[in-house]
Specification:
217 residues; 2 domains; 52% helix
Length: 217
């Protein structure tokens, strides 16, 4: 007689396993689309390039959602350890923008960055702060109109480093943002990461601009 042992997993464990398994094929699709867009297999028409940009944007956004599922699982399992190093926020921002630039190109949106701080160097986990910036920028992309501009302003408030992301996103209040941010996980992850750095994060509506501001000590 064949005896079978059942392995019971929770819903969160199942989602984490699924997200982990999906990351590799999604990454492969992104790499293939980038090769096509670069003309590696021949020159493409303008229409074909626009189509590839849209496909790249969709796959990059899917990749972000998968990373959020895995990040949420790590947070809930308390498997969340910061690896702080002396880092330059300008480098972190530029790399974050580079990772999702294709999203903005697909909607012909622009990102403008103003570096106004006196001191850009802080001790923080560069990978996790990139995750915060990418999540906040992806929300600005999703809920802002085509041909709009997303502004990033970096300044000092006392000894803290302040990063503000401003957009024309039509989000009226905090509750609505929490419901809409990357399937409900993005803002939760951003808040956990910033609070783990002993920082603060808040949202504001000013002069028709929606802002998310976070500070690092």
């Amino acid at each position: 007689m064949l005896h079978q042992n059942k392995i019971l997993i929770t819903d969160s464990e199942f989602l984490a396993m699924l997200a982990h398994d999906m990351k590799t094929p999604v990454k492969a699709q992104i790499m293939a689309l980038k090769l096509l867009y670069s003309g590696a297999f021949g020159k493409l028409s303008k229409e074909a390039c626009n189509l590839i940009l849209n496909l790249l944007a969709s796959n990059r956004y899917l990749q972000l959602l998968l990373e959020n599922v895995l990040g949420n699982y790590r947070i809930n399992k308390n498997d969340f350890i910061l690896n702080k190093t002396k880092s330059d926020i300008r480098k972190t921002i530029e790399e974050s923008i580079g990772n999702i630039q294709v999203l903005f190109e697909a909607k012909e949106q622009k990102i403008e960055v103003n570096y106004l701080a006196d001191d850009f160097i802080k001790f923080y986990d560069e990978i996790e702060i990139q995750r915060v910036i990418i999540n906040l920028l992806s929300n600005a992309f999703e809920y802002s109109e085509e041909n709009s501009t997303i502004n990033i302003e970096v300044n000092n408030i006392g000894k803290n480093l302040c990063v503000e992301i401003k957009s024309s996103a039509k989000i009226n209040n905090k509750k609505r943002l929490e419901q809409k941010t990357s399937t409900g996980l993005g803002l939760k992850i951003c808040r956990k990461i910033i609070e783990a750095h002993c920082g603060k994060i808040r949202q504001e509506n000013r002069n028709g601009k929606f802002s998310v501001i976070f500070q690092l000590p």
